[in-house]
Protein 1
Amino acid sequence: QGSTSIAPGFASWPTTDQACSGPPEVYTVRPSPGKGLGVFALHDLDVGSIIMRETPIFTIQRPSFIKGTGYPMEAVSQLVRSEFALLASKQQEEVMNLTYHATDTEKENSDVLGLIFRSNAYKTGEDIGLFPKISRINHSCRPNTSYYWNAKQNKRIVYANRKIRKGEELFDSYISLLLTHKERKERLEPYGFTCSCPACASKPKAMRESDVRRMDIRKAFADFASQLTLTVPDSQSARRKARINAKASLQLNGLVQQEALADFYAHAYKIVAISHARAEDWGAATTWSNRGYELRVMEDPESANAMEMFQLTSAFIERWKDEMRQQSL
Ligand SMILES: C[S@@+](CC[C@H](N)C(=O)[O-])C[C@H]1O[C@@H](n2cnc3c(N)ncnc32)[C@H](O)[C@@H]1O
């Protein structure tokens, strides 16, 4: 496999599609106590191992989202029915075999296809799609897999976001994870279960601490959003502020790691990298940017995120080299 090295020990730009590596069958589907069916690892899996790559059996355009209630069920059902009618009978059977949750009133008044779609669909860029294999993955608020939508391949790709042991159940997340336990519980209601993952089943004190961490992370991400530009401070006070922010970015990253929110690692690394660049600490900026780059490449080597981190890392390495040259004069 070819690659273009940026600098020894640092990020390289892959010239082949790394997302296509990995053993063909790494999972099995079997009952998961209290959760219906679940997906389990057949082998030990390394971080980044691809678990599933699946083309949606069909997609629908997203109807307008109604704040508080979500997508209007009737509009969704209608779109789903039209797409379902176009499927071969074997595919229709696969869809009808998927599990779904509904209240008694919904069971009486709603179309089963719409309910199946609500319990199983995932976003596919602008649309929403049904993936019968990926649909067997149960939810956790501290999931061991992550996913992304690869528009070019027309596939949703699920990969291990940490080392996973043979026999472990694989989990992804159905909801945003920067929410308190109470908020997550509410968002999971349409799926008809109470989450018992390590984040939700912890003792009250640990739960409160986790809630505080998740809220702090959400606030810090919002606060840092306006500071993700590469303006180097031009006054004493701005330099002091940049150094304080660089420290705060490390604290933010610490919280993300403590909560094991793997989906946010790369974003946290980018914040740490840019905050250190703004404080003109080019060594730290390069190291953190490179970590972010490695994660983005693992996720999708051709993504805009990977390209962005490649460019940042290259720029920071140049500044770091300049700094070292000047120090040696
Ligand atoms: C997308 S399906 C997942 C696969 C499903 N278990 C099956 O048998 O096909 C979503 C449904 O699985 C169940 N489920 C998912 N995650 C769960 C969890 N952490 N605890 C209990 N049930 C869960 C709920 O019934 C939910 O509506």
Protein 2
Amino acid sequence: MLGSTTISCALFFFLFIIFKIHHRRKCCKYPIFRDYPFLGMLPTILWNLWNIHDFITKELKKRHRGTAEFLGPWFTNMNYLITSDPINVHHMMSKCFDNYVKGSEFRDIFEAFGDGIFVADSETWKYNRSLFHSVFKQRGFELFQEKIIQNKVERSLIPLLDHVQEQESVVDLQDVFNRFTFDNICSVILGCDPNCLSIEFPDVACEKAFDQIEECIFYRHATPKTFWMFQKLLQVGQEKKMTKAYKEFDQFIYANIESKREELKRAGRDTITSALTWLFYLIATHPLVEAKILEEIKENFGAIDIGKKLGVNEVKKLVYLHGAICEAVRLYPPIPFERKQAIKDDILPSGHLVNSGTIILFSLYSMGRFEETWGKDCLDFKPERWISERGGIVYEPSYKFFSFNAGPRTCLGKDLSFIQIKMVAVAILSNYSIQVVNGHIPIPNLSIVLLMKNGLKVRIRKREN
Ligand code: HEM
């Protein structure tokens, strides 16, 4: 009797597995990886996690219109449609904007960002957006930023770099930029400068805590929700780190202001740090580009002495430098992937079916590296790409150059970012030459902001003006 029950159960189990495998194959017309029984496509992701952005790019390039489906382990909701097709981006970010939202699962994953503009949808988002818009688009805000950055460059950045070059020591430029942008954002939001950028390189617990939060959010994308919720309940693994970091970060914020501003910190600090770090890496490894940037600075402003500070209006004239920044954020987008969820069923221009509730992942990293979009030299660092025959800046539609998002949710800090990056780049490049330490290989980190895992180790030398 027991024997026949066991056999029936085993048969039922076997048939269930066959049915499930068959059903998943039928539903998933454009798989990105091999779909293993029970574990789905997760093993391939975990195996290649160390190199995830390049790996996904390579796989997407082989798929129809750079779009494919990812199925997570059985009985989880971890199913994504991944795309890097600009026409799909235009469809979801602009044409059918109302059908693609951040959604409640996004808010769960990004809970550390509270209910701010980055996670909000519909009316809450509209309200937040108009609030931020009214601040960022004021001329006074631009000038306020200009003053803060000029002060920071003159009083902290230049003295620190002078000190480093006198000592002939190696410095982590990414750490320098992190401290610079952290001081800057605290000055803007909190009205006080924590002075993290100083020759003592003080330990800043709050800053590290924020990096930790971003790393944990990245892992939540690569883990089934039930799994990370369970980890959170038991307070183990990444989730334990997340809670600790969150407490530390909150202590700092509450000690300084009453309302939380995590979202602005992500916008204003990490993205700029990322853009500056990759930009300097690319410039340091492309001497011809460096020479052209210096030439442009010289042509516009003559020889620049250490104390000379360029303002908003001056840096706007630097077209070649603008092209170099566009190239840096095209090849290394500070936010390497984005996520949306469909409200209703839809069909994408690429022909892929979207069911209500489908989660879409946009690989911004892959989008900057597609030959169909950027041509055969898509992997080259080529600021000339952004300069028109008449010497102006080439305009590329945001659904193609997606690093600052597209449609109604386009980044509100885009113009401000170019100004900040240019001011810092001119101050450094006109005073110092940068050499990446021999053998230092920049490895992208695993986080929601694309930084270098081991920083950017460089030596600096004073320029003979
Ligand atoms: C190189 C620098 C930057 C890059 C590449 C960048 C990129 C982006 C991207 C991709 C988004 C969409 C994020 C998402 O929806 O998940 C975004 C949104 C946003 N960014 Fe930036 N950002 C940069 C700098 C800044 C700065 C300096 C600020 C302001 C101080 C800022 C303010 C915002 C705001 C407020 C949003 C939300 C817009 C909305 O949802 O309506 N960003 N940014």
Protein 3
Amino acid sequence: MEGSAAVPAWLLNRQHAKAIGEASRKKAAEAAAERESTRRKAPASKLEKEATLSQYPSIPLSEYASDGDHLAINADYPGLRAIHRDPWIFLVSDLLSRAECEELMVKAGPHFQSSGGYSNNFRTSCECRVARHETQRLHARYAKLLNVPVGSLEAAKVSRYRRDEFFRNHVDVLSGTDFLENRIATLFVYLNDCEAGGETRFLSLPSQRSLEYAVGEKVCCLSTGRDVDGEGDYPGVIRAVLEDGSVDVDFDDGDEVARVPRSAVRAYETLEVKPAQGMGVLFFPGYLPSSPKAMRFRNQLDRYTVHEGCVAVDEKWVHQSWVWPSHPQAHYDGVETGAVGL
Ligand SMILES: O=C(O)CCC(=O)C(=O)O
Ligand SMILES: [Fe+2]
């Protein structure tokens, strides 16, 4: 009998549509369960938040003045506090509300793509960019904090690290931009609390400690051309001290560099920030184009701002924004999520 085993096209279409419907329902349910597990914990009380913040170093904001090398932000912004100077690193408590964090997660979650494609295993998270007109209120807020027009901001990025995922040592300036135009501020906001793992760690902050230049000593030094987007001062250990006084260094991430003059190695300090929902972290990865320092370092990099997203234990969500001196030369566009604007 002709075609008895054949499934009619209309049924095939229906089955197909059903399969797609089931798949997308399953995906939505998985995403909802995932979000639920990430936000399940009770929100931190005001007191708990203060206690957490008091664990960080506190530098009087009155000491922050525009130095001509870095962006002059609005030092009066509510919730702003400085936790490091030279390079300046700030926290902004409650930059986003709990509801805003969650809305952003809902918005971005269905559009994630692997971060791995362009970053050589430096990074194992997922991410997406959100269309600028869907984050107008947030951008207006950031523009106030940063003292820049909204047009200087890249499209909002949202990243998720599942357990064991990370973003290794890196700098935030980009290579291949036009002369003296690069990222001059990084502002990111944690979208959830993490009890364990996922800290953002600044790895090579300046230190007053003097060095002995001995084998096994912890040092950091500039490493040209080994980072995805730029160079910076990376931490490591002296492997050998040579007759001419120079040293061989094993970097902590497995790379190495030989015959570094003593004058080019230095002691360093680290600083870790623990993800807390709604809290912003702000620093200046690159010098202003008008700063004399911008000419001295490739990609305008402030070499002290090398940092990493440590391995996640609890799932971690973070939302990043970058500022350019005028119009961003990269990442201006994002996806239309169709979800409610923020
Ligand atoms: O995930 C983090 O803690 C930091 C993210 C970051 O450094 C970046 O996206 O450039
Ligand atoms: Fe970064």
